């Protein structure tokens, strides 16, 4: 047992402390990338088709929070003289849209240049761009850290594991973009390209508020290496957050617009951790209790196993899932995606690498795929806005494209 501990500690510390020169042709797209991308897009297009057959060509764009990100992409938070859609429909406070940070909407804005201002098409392209970037970055993370047996297989599994992510890599959502820049941040940490590392860390911060977690992860890695100067440097992560505060003050006259809505208005944060299990909520809602229990029972072993495979990723997953313990929301699987992706795919790599498991998956391939696609498409249809709401969002563009 002591020998096993020493071996695990050695792998953990080496993955944190050792820098790696960039392998030859490391950044070059290759046939293995094409396989991974084809798998991801096949799943995405299948979900799109199923949703569109049910609810028309804009079905995917209506899934929450898709309209929110599209609106920010069109307006960059400036509604002009028009009443914003959430004030008009739900009587939400004017600063509600501050909860949707600009990292992903900027990609929608970028795609609109290629579609000549066709915002619906730009929105679909933004999904393909962000998931494509994630596939590219995720596989290279696995390669540079040498943390799984088959990087191509693990990256292909990303299209369906965790199952909740099947939905969120197929709709307008910030998770794929956030995960892509988390992977890039850890890659640039490993090869010691500090300018690009910090650029990716900052982009994480303007994509999701949890971007602070990747800055904290890299700071702890430097601390474990006793590299105090670079550990202190990671406090510059907060520059991106300060920039967001300044932007919110200018746009909404509220320094803490994001926190005011999510924490005060919505009560998203609870204390103590695991409040649903041990707090005053008791056992009044068994659906949420079981959701929390199952999530952490599945996740925790994966996080522990990560420490023997990839130290920086293990630290990130631990920090992120510690944050998830204080969330007060029924859809904990969605909020936990950035941590669970690494825990399930890398932590349980021995499971996915097993020939028995692979043969079982192949044998049940078609029924399993149909089941997963039915689940994803069905879930999407339960959480969409109305056609009139989406049309009003698109009306903020200077021309009509519907």
TrEMBL record:
It comes from the Eukaryota. Keywords: Membrane, Transmembrane, Transmembrane helix. The chain crosses the membrane at residues 36-54, 94-114, 121-145, 165-189, 201-222, 228-247, 292-320, 332-348, 360-378. This is GPI mannosyltransferase 2. It comes from Trichomonas vaginalis (strain ATCC PRA-98 / G3).
């Amino acid at each position: 047992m002591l020998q096993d501990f020493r071996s695990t500690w050695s792998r953990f510390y080496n993955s944190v402390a050792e820098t790696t020169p960039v392998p030859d042709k490391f950044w070059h797209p290759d046939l293995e990338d094409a396989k991974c991308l084809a798998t991801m897009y096949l799943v995405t297009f299948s979900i799109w088709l199923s949703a569109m057959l049910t609810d028309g060509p804009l079905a995917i764009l209506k899934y929450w929070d898709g309209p929110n990100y599209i609106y920010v992409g069109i307006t960059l938070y400036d509604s002009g003289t028009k009443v914003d859609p959430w004030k008009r429909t739900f009587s939400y406070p004017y600063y509600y849209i501050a909860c949707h940070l600009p990292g992903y909407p900027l990609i929608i804005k970028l795609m609109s240049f290629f579609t000549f201002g066709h915002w619906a098409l730009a929105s679909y392209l933004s999904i393909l761009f962000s998931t494509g970037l994630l596939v590219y970055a995720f596989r290279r993370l696995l390669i540079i850290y040498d943390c799984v047996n088959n990087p191509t297989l693990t990256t292909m599994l990303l299209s369906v594991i965790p199952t909740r992510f099947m939905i969120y890599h197929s709709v307008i959502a910030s998770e794929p973009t956030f995960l892509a820049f988390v992977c890039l941040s850890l890659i640039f940490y490993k090869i010691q390209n500090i300018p690009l590392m910090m650029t990716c860390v900052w982009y994480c911060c303007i994509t999701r508020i949890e971007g602070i977690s990747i800055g904290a992860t890299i700071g702890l890695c430097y601390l474990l290496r006793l590299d105090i100067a670079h550990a202190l440097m990671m406090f510059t992560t907060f520059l991106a957050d300060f920039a967001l505060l300044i932007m919110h003050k200018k746009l909404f006259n509220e320094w803490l617009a994001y926190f005011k809505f999510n924490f005060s208005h919505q009560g998203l944060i609870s204390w103590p951790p695991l409040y649903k299990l041990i707090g005053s909520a008791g056992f009044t809602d068994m659906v949420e209790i079981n959701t929390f229990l199952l999530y952490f029972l599945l996740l925790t072993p994966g996080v522990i196993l990560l420490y023997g495979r990839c130290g920086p990723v293990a630290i990130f997953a631990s920090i992120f899932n510690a944050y998830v313990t204080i969330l007060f929301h029924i859809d904990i699987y969605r909020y936990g995606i950035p941590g669970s992706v690494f825990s399930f795919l890398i932590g349980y790599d021995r499971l996915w690498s097993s020939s028995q498991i692979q043969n079982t998956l192949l044998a049940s391939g078609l029924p399993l795929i149909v089941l997963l696609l039915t689940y994803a498409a069905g879930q999407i249809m339960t959480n969409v806005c109305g056609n009139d709401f989406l049309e009003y969002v698109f009306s903020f563009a200077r021309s009509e494209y519907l």
